[in-house]
Design goal:
Blueprint: E1 3-7, H1 11-22, E2 26-31, H2 37-42, H3 44-63, H4 77-101, E3 105-108, E4 110-115, E5 118-123, E6 126-131, E7 134-137, E8 141-143, E9 156-158, H5 159-162, E10 171-175, H6 179-190, E11 194-198, H7 210-222, E12 226-228, E13 231-238, E14 243-249, E15 254-259, E16 261-264, E17 268-270, H8 277-280, E18 284-285, E19 288-289, E20 302-304, H9 315-329, E21 342-345, E22 350-355, H10 358-364, E23 368-374, H11 379-384, E24 390-396, E25 402-409, H12 412-424, H13 429-434, H14 444-453
Helix pairs in contact: 1-9, 3-4, 3-6
């Protein structure tokens, strides 16, 4: 029986531990704080609880369109925080129960390597040394701290801190317009906070199809969120009752904004500093552990998965990598496949994508056909009162194989899984167009977008 130690109990780590146990390994899991990692405790799950609250609050404004009168709404922040904490506890308790059921021993403490076969685990009671045949490192990531003067002020928050605040601030400036920043902008603006977003790059959501990112920019702006792109925050000055934030636009113009809080959402960095990887001989590049297609490091018995090693800082990717690493520890030779990786942004409306963007294809010199179908033409979206959005399909010109699907609209983060399956099976536009989708559903917009690639969408008027 192979002995395995998994370091880190987040999505990549606990999935790796369970899969390895299923395959007959004797597994120990080292976790510094709580199983579930950032995703369950300080990321994916708690933010979605708060985003749902913002969505519910917004639904009251639409209620009158359906003949429902809601005279007054108010937010009890403590009740919402209790709901968030209860959801997190239920899920983390569930993970603990799963680990126990598969015979995984969970040890709490911080691990560091002594050599490629031994680690030291430090907890409040001292240190202990553990030896193992194999290791899977899954220590995740932590918020990046940009080089900005004045970040030590009491009103400056990381994404972790933002989920523990005692009340909704009257105003907040978010540094970073990526997925984390945009989701927090949606959350705080939806709960009545005045939001400003400052993004260093020329546009928000740079990893998303440009057309879709532009839609989200417009939606957020229409809800009162002020967005500055190609701008760099240079200073945060604590004035006691407020923070004075100075940032510089591309043309050199300086702008000063007064805000109650500042949220740092300028990305995350691998969390590997405490591992003492050099003692094990594990190679890194700017803190990120280098792995091959089997999730193996340069040291044969040590693997790494998730944010500490992956090109994608996504929980669902970490889970997939965890399975791959576990199977290979148990004697397999399975390769990690990144060809179909969905991305989801829980804005309102939701945004989800998989595969190449139109701009990606242009840069790569790939001739494409593009189909679009607006949600305003979808019956189910109209019945929901959520007709804002579009489905976009990018296909290669010759064979019409689907290269990318981008969805903005209701239930986009659920619908993208159907697109992922189609791409995994190397589906063509014609094959999607021939499917019979249930009616009335938002999914019908995917079929119509496929038909649009061929210039024959049923529920769009004839062009020209």
């Amino acid at each position: 029986m192979t002995d395995l130690i998994v370091i880190g109990g987040g999505p990549g780590g606990y999935v790796a531990a369970i899969r390895a146990a299923q395959l007959g390994c004797n597994v120990k899991l080292i976790e510094r704080e709580k199983v579930g990692g950032t995703c369950l405790n300080r990321g994916c799950i708690p933010t979605k609880v708060l985003l749902h609250a913002a969505e519910l609050k917004g639904s009251f404004d639409k209620a009158r369109d359906y003949g429902l009168s809601v005279k007054k709404t108010s937010l009890d922040w403590k009740v919402l925080m209790d709901r968030k904490d209860a959801t997190v506890k239920q899920l983390t308790d569930g993970v603990s129960a799963l680990l126990e059921s598969w015979g995984v021993e969970v040890i709490y403490g911080e691990a560091s390597f002594v050599n490629s076969k031994e680690i030291v685990v430090r907890d409040g009671n001292g240190t202990s040394k553990l030896r193992s045949d194999s290791f899977i490192i899954a220590t995740g990531s932590k918020p990046s701290m940009p080089p900005i003067e004045g970040l030590q002020g009491k009103g400056v928050l990381t994404s972790d801190d933002a989920l523990q605040i005692e009340d909704i601030p009257s105003s907040i400036l978010i540094v970073g317009g990526g997925v984390i920043g945009v989701e927090f902008a949606t959350l705080f603006s939806g709960l009545g906070c005045h939001v400003t977003v400052v993004e260093f790059l020329p546009r928000i959501l740079t990893n998303i199809d440009e057309e879709m990112a532009s839609y989200i920019h417009e939606v957020l702006s229409s809800k009162g969120v002020k967005i500055y792109t190609a701008s760099r925050v240079t200073e945060v000055d604590d004035k006691g009752n407020y923070l004075a934030v100075t940032f510089q636009e591309e043309d050199g113009k300086k702008i000063a904004v007064e805000t109650e809080k500042v949220l740092l959402a300028a990305g995350r960095v691998p969390n590997t500093q405490a591992l003492n990887l050099s003692s094990a001989g594990v190679e890194t590049e700017r803190g990120r552990i280098k792995v091959d297609k089997f999730m193996r490091t340069n040291v044969a018995n040590i693997y790494a998965v998730g944010d500490c090693a992956s090109p994608y800082m996504l929980a669902h990717v970490a889970m997939a990598e965890g399975e791959i690493a576990a199977e290979n520890v148990a004697g397999g030779e399975r390769e990690m496949d990144y060809s179909v990786v969905p991305s989801c942004v829980f804005t309102s409306p939701e945004l989800a994508s998989v595969g190449r963007s139109e701009l990606d294809c242009q840069k790569a010199g790939i001739p494409v056909k593009v189909g679009r179908f607006p949600m305003v033409g979808n019956g189910r979206a109209l019945t929901l009162g959520e007709a804002e959005g579009i489905v976009k399909i990018v296909a290669d010109s010759k064979y019409e194989r689907v290269l990318g699907v981008h969805i903005l609209g209701p239930n986009a983060t659920e619908l993208i899984s159907a697109a992922c399956m189609a791409m995994k099976l190397e589906a063509t536009v014609e094959e999607i167009a021939q499917l019979i989708f249930a009616h009335p559903t938002v999914g019908e917009a995917l079929k119509e977008a496929a038909l649009s690639v061929q210039g024959r969408a049923i529920h769009l008027p004839k062009e020209g």
